């Protein structure tokens, strides 16, 4: 540009000179001075956007908004001589890209700048006033618009409240587990560079009732006046009512509720005892407090013992139930001597008196005594023991009624050992006995009777013999003898034998009455007879301290007599059912409270045909002196098929010890291999009889002999009481396998 100016061309010679002037103009393209490209202002204000340019000739300035030319109108837009654009009364729509364009003959230049018009915040979503229950949850919502997007914060009573940052002009203030301090005036504040907006709401806290019962346990005596206090707080003030044992209390003259909520009970009775609950409610919730009231009263009898008559050897129970507060203690006296339970005498948990194996000497007056802190009372009842008459020994036989030939002899006995007492029945059976007698006989010649019937085959399997007999009237006093054979024997054959062992051996260990049994040994022989399998068993190496206890433990031999029992009517014994391989759990319970448990492990038959087993005993039995006279009555055991591999058996039994009856009971559970199948009947009955016991104290040996057989039960294909038939009909199931209890 500095080359611009007036240039003179001058010509000179000798003849003279001449000159010519010319003007040089240098044109420069426009250039716009660049400054800040981002411009900011606020709604309602005016804003000037300069356009500082240079160029030769001076450029012409034109403005564009968002690529569209701006036409100055002196109201919204004006452009001064320097090219500055003025925008009046800014609105949000004025935000955009503004372009200054400078032009002259040498060229043009453009410069874009962005104007952002900021809008102050305006709250569009206002929070609402809240009523909140203590420990509850409430949410305050606030939303605002503006450019740029406003930031929202919260205050409570002018103090800032911590909250998550707002998002897109929205905020939620969440208060959980509200406390009383959370009540107050909450303000939503929306801010951006253009300004701020606020809105305030009220949060009111409702407090649930708080109940305080100062006396949680009250003790009074009958007829006293009782005041149960109930201190209550809460907002709004709660309503109060009382319940007793979960039911509303009927107020009246005797039971009243005071203005402060306390409950007054006049002239208290035992029926007033219980749990009293003070319940307070308001709009915020409810609260309750509990007080337990005990009304003390002296003891009195609810159930009294009555005069009782019991058969000797039976069980006597006298009931006695006493009421009172505190609960009375109950004791028993015979005459005026307090009864200490033990042996045959027990006091049950319900305070009933029970005497087992009642004896004549138990006859007398029994008193029930009830006592508590307010007094004591007595009631009495009489026990009479009924004794049935028993015969004395037979007298000697009288002389034969005839001196020759056949006559009669008589003998007698008296019903005085003991005589009937307290209504007992007279002796059973004849008091007179007779028999035939012969002093001398005349000569009688021998003579055969008719042949008897053929006997059954001597064996139930394989080849045997059967015979028949006739009787020869033996010649007496020189009579002629019978001619011919007395017996006739022929062969018989039946089905092949099912080989059942006839001998058993096993070990017996454990403890009884805390005395160890370490070397016990059992051997037994089983002999078939017409009446059943005859068992001859011996227990060796019994410690002397407990030798007397084994005299009644016949079920310790169960692996012998159930396994080898004679089968009747198609029933199966233990050997046929299990092949002599099974486990058995046994429990014995005596009327005097002792319990003995046994585990039998039967392992089958060895190569010598001997049944092998092991037995473990544990528990206690009645203490019996070694020289006790023990007699076991015949008994039965019911075997019930309870599953494809299990049986249940039970038995109630009776023994006589030194003349006194003692009941006891057994129950068994048996498990065996499923491959052997089930019993042919749902229920089978095992019967034992002819039980004999012999004790050899010196050799520490006890011997048993008895007969056993097993047969179908009378209702062999029906499940007994307490059991139900399973869906397949092959065994009985019960709610619980019962344990036989001695009463």
Automatic annotation (TrEMBL):
Record InterPro entries: Cell_Adh-Cytoskel_Orgn, G2_nidogen/fibulin_G2F, GFP, Ig-like_dom, Ig-like_dom_sf, Ig-like_fold, Ig_I-set, Ig_sub
Keyword Transmembrane: yes
The keyword Calcium appears for this protein: yes
Subcellular location: Membrane; Secreted, Extracellular space, Extracellular matrix
Residues covered by the Nidogen G2 beta-barrel domain: 500-720
Primary subcellular site in the record, as a coarse category: membrane
Domain (Ig-like) ranges: 30-116, 121-202, 209-294, 299-384
GO cellular component, one term: plasma membrane
Membrane topology, record value: Single-pass membrane protein
Pfam families: G2F, I-set, Ig_3, TSP_1
GO biological-process terms attached to the record: homophilic cell adhesion via plasma membrane adhesion molecules
PROSITE patterns, per the entry: IG_LIKE (PS50835), NIDOGEN_G2 (PS50993), TSP1 (PS50092)
Keywords: Calcium, Cell adhesion, Disulfide bond, Extracellular matrix, Glycoprotein, Immunoglobulin domain, Membrane, Repeat, Secreted, Signal, Transmembrane, Transmembrane helix
Name assigned to this protein: Hemicentin
Species name: Mytilus galloprovincialis (Mediterranean mussel)
């Amino acid at each position: 540009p500095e080359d611009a100016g007036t240039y003179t061309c001058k010509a000179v010679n000798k003849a003279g000179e001449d000159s010519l002037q010319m003007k040089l103009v240098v044109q420069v393209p426009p250039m716009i001075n660049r400054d800040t490209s981002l411009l900011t202002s606020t709604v309602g204000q005016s804003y000037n956007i300069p356009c500082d340019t240079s160029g030769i000739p001076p450029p012409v300035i034109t403005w564009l908004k968002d690529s569209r030319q701006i036409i100055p109108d002196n109201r919204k837009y004006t452009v001064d001589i320097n090219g500055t654009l003025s925008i009046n009364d800014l609105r949000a729509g004025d935000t955009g890209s503004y372009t200054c364009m400078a032009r002259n003959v040498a060229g043009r230049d453009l410069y874009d700048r962005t104007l952002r018009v900021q809008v102050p915040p305006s709250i569009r979503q206002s929070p609402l006033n809240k009523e909140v229950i203590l420990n509850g949850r409430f949410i305050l919502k606030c939303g605002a618009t503006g450019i740029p997007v406003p930031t929202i914060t919260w205050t409570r009573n002018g103090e800032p409240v911590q909250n998550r940052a707002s998002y897109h002009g929205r905020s939620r203030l969440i208060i959980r587990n509200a406390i009383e301090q959370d009540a107050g005036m909450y303000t939503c504040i929306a801010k951006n560079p253009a300004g701020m907006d606020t809105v305030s709401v009220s949060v009111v806290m409702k407090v649930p009732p708080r109940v305080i019962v100062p006396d949680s346990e009250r003790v009074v005596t009958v007829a006293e006046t009782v005041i149960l206090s109930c201190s209550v707080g809460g907002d709004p003030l709660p309503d109060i009512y009382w319940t007793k044992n979960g039911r509303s209390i009927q107020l009246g003259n005797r039971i009243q509720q005071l203005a402060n909520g306390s409950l007054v009970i006049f002239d208290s009775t035992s029926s007033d005892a219980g749990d009293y609950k003070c319940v307070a409610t308001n709009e915020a919730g409810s609260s309750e407090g509990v007080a337990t009231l005990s009304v003390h009263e002296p003891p009195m009898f609810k159930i009294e013992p009555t005069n009782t008559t019991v058969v000797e050897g039976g069980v006597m129970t006298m009931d006695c139930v006493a009421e009172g507060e505190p609960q009375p203690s109950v004791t028993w006296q015979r005459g005026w001597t307090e009864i200490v339970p033990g042996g045959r005498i027990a006091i049950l948990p319900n305070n009933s008196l029970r005497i087992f194996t009642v004896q004549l000497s138990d006859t007398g007056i029994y008193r029930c005594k009830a006592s508590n802190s307010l007094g004591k009372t007595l009631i009495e009842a009489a026990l009479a023991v009924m004794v049935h008459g028993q015969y004395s020994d037979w007298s000697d036989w009288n002389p034969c009624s005839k001196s020759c030939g056949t006559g009669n002899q008589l003998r007698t006995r008296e019903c005085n050992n003991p005589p009937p007492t307290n209504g007992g029945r007279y002796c059973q059976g004849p008091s007179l006995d007779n028999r035939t007698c012969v002093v001398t006989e005349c000569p009688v010649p021998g003579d055969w009777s008719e042949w008897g019937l053929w006997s059954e085959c001597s064996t139930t399997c394989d080849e045997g013999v059967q015979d028949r007999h006739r009787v020869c009237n033996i010649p007496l006093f020189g009579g002629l003898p019978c001619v011919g054979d007395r017996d006739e024997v022929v062969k018989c054959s039946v089905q092949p034998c099912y080989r059942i062992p006839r001998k058993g051996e096993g070990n017996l260990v454990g403890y009884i009455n805390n005395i160890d049994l370490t070397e016990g040994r059992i051997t037994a022989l089983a002999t078939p007879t017409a009446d059943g399998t005859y068992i001859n068993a011996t227990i060796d190496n019994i410690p002397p301290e407990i030798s007397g206890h084994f005299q009644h433990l016949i079920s310790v031999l169960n692996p012998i007599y159930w396994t080898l029992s004679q089968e009747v009517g198609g029933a199966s014994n233990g050997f046929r059912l299990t092949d002599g391989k099974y486990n058995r759990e046994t429990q014995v319970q005596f009327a005097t409270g002792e319990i003995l448990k046994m585990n039998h492990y039967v392992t089958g038959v060895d190569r010598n045909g001997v049944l092998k087993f092991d037995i473990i005993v544990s528990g206690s039995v009645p203490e019996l002196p070694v020289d006790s006279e023990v007699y076991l009555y015949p008994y039965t055991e019911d075997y019930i098929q309870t599953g494809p591999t299990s049986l249940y058996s039970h038995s109630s039994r009776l023994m006589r010890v030194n003349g006194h009856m003692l009941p006891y009971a057994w129950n068994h559970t048996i498990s065996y291999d499923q491959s052997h199948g089930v019993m042919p009947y749902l229920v089978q009955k095992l019967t034992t009889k002819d039980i004999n016991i012999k004790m050899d104290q010196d050799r520490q040996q006890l011997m048993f002999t008895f007969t056993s057989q097993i047969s179908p039960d009378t209702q062999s294909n029906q499940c007994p009481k307490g059991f139900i038939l399973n869906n397949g009909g092959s065994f009985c199931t019960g709610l619980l396998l019962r344990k036989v209890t001695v009463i």
